[in-house]
Amino acid sequence: MHEIEELEARLKEENIEYCMSKKMDSRGILGCLGKIDEADVVYVVNPGGYVGKSVCVDIGYAHARNKPIYVMYSVDDPPVMNMIHGILSFEELAEFLKHSSPL
């Protein structure tokens, strides 16, 4: 959770519009998938490279929706990593988002 709060502070500091899934909302995974539908870019905060089952579903869904997907650390699962566009630190993500146009 600390990393998510750190990223949120960085995005606010840079005046970058964002939407985060900090906790499951009342709609469960459907709420998260709805946020992916609205996103131009999907960024996965995955300390140590870990992604759980729900995040794998999110990544697969984002991939199927042709959303660019970036992660904080490489995922140690080649099929999942093949869906990832790149690995970006918070600083790199902020710079990328500031200089990219919406899809």
Strand and helix map with partners:
Elements: H1 2-13, H2 29-38, E1 42-44, H3 53-64, E2 69-71, H4 78-81, E3 86-87, H5 90-99
Parallel strand pairs: 1-2, 2-3
Give an account of the 3D structure.
By secondary structure, this protein is mostly helical. It has one domain: 3-Layer(aba) Sandwich (Rossmann fold), CATH 3.40.50.450. The protein is built from 5 helices and 3 strands, in the order H-H-E-H-E-H-E-H. Strands 1-2-3 form a 3-stranded parallel beta sheet, covered by helices on one side. Helix 2 runs parallel beside helix 3. The radius of gyration is 13 Å and the shape is globular.
How far from one another are the termini? Answer: 28 Å
* Whole-number count of domains: 1
Using the alpha-carbon principal axes, give the shape: globular
Strand order of the largest sheet: 1-2-3
Beta-strand share of residues:
5-15%
